[in-house]
Amino acid sequence: MLNSNNPKGSSFKNHKISKGFNRAVSDEAVRVTVPELIRLNQTAAALSLWPPTTTRTQQSGHYFSAFKGRGMEFDEVRPYQPGDDVRHLDWRVTARTGKVHTKLFREERERPVFLWIDYRAPMFFATRGVFKSVLAARTAALLAWSSNHHNDRVGGQIFSDAIHHEFKPQRGKAQVLHFIKQLVDMQTKIVLSETDKDAAQHALARLRRVVHPGSLIFLISDFRHLNAQMELHLMQIARHNDVVMLFVYDALESQLPPSGRYRLSDGQWDTTLNTADQRLVTTYHNRFIQHQAHLQQLANQHRFLLLHCATTDDPLAKLQQSLGRSRQRHRKK
After folding, report:
1. How high is the pLDDT of residue 269?
2. Which of 101, 162, 132 lies closest to 246 in space, CA to CA?
3. Cα–Cα distance measured from residue 141 to residue 185, given in angstroms and rounded to the nearest whole number
4. How remote is the C-alpha of 262 from its chain's centroid?
5. Regions of the chain where pLDDT drops below 70
6. In this structure, what CATH number is given to the domain that contains residue 310?
7. Which of 113, 114, 244, 286 is the most exposed place for a label (fewest CB within 10 A)?
8. Are residues 146 and 102 in the same domain?
9. What are phi and psi of 284, to 5 degrees?
10. Do 132 and 15 contact (CB within 8 A), yes or no?
11. What local confidence, expressed as pLDDT, does residue 25 receive?
């Protein structure tokens, strides 16, 4: 928890960040339950995953293949490249720009939805709202239920520093319920004292091997210990799939509290933080900004969609708002 010796007080609530938390903090803020995640089925019906579709068959999902080809749905126009079908030349754009352009299409096909959930020790933390792990679980449950409403197969991974659960893509309510049960059960198996800086790297490497080309992939994490090998895996995964990165963070990770001395505790160890040192405060904040900027650079470079989710955010509203903007941009292409 965070305690302030500052006589003016602090804007940060005194939240416990591990076992034995203060009872002033509700259980809902630090853990999820199966009934809670099942209830999200009702609200998930209002969530439409990007990109949208205008047609549907009984067996196929609502999304379009990431592979651009001679399908029925127009996708975009780009400069002509040797080998392009001359029947698909866009003469209007060619006349307007003075350069030959061709039309690209997306064919409708079933696409699995993969959910990659980070349960490493740093995710079991918050000073406001709910634990990052709780936000991740609720977001994942919403996405799983939404996929079920759209008759899409749901698969993915839930991993911690020491445990890794994998789900092959399957369709139906039973698959979502199994996924939810693992989201809840894994909370009780987390050992916060253990830290494996390579856990996320190993999980991404595994995802790269098992993901189906043309899938829609949601990565939910704070992306701690992001390294060159992880970025290589992300690049390879994004090459044949649509990737949405949900960056989960707490306010304290972005900005230290006002000037004062604060006691930090993880339930076992205590330490004191002095935020009167302005240089420390500035360096701390800049490190967070650099992390954000690097994630955005990766997203831009490899055509991910990057969403920022604070521990105080409503995951449904955040997904509706962010995916809705992406849908509008997709339609304008």
Report:
1. 79
2. 132
3. 14
4. 31
5. 1-26, 50-75, 105-110, 191-194, 266-267, 324-333
6. 3.40.50.410
7. 286
8. no
9. -60, -50
10. no
11. 53
Q: Give the structural domain span for 103.
A: 64-108
Domain co-membership, 191 together with 73: no
pLDDT of res. 194: 64
- Confirm if 310 and 125 have CB atoms less than 8 A apart: no
Q: In the chain, which ranges are continuous DSSP H helix?
A: 34-44, 91-97, 132-149, 173-185, 199-210, 228-239, 251-254, 278-302, 315-332
**298-311 pLDDT, tens digit each:** 999 998 899 999 99
In a domain, 58, yes or no: no
Instruction: Please calculate the CA angle 60-63-64 and round it to the nearest 5 degrees.
Output: 105
Burial of 98 (0-12, 13-18, 19+ CB in 10 A): exposed
The tokens describing 29, both together, are 């803020």
Q: Using CA atoms, how far apart are residues 288 and 256, in angstroms rounded to an integer?
A: 11
CB 293 within 8 A of CB 247: no
Q: What is the pTM of this model?
A: 0.76
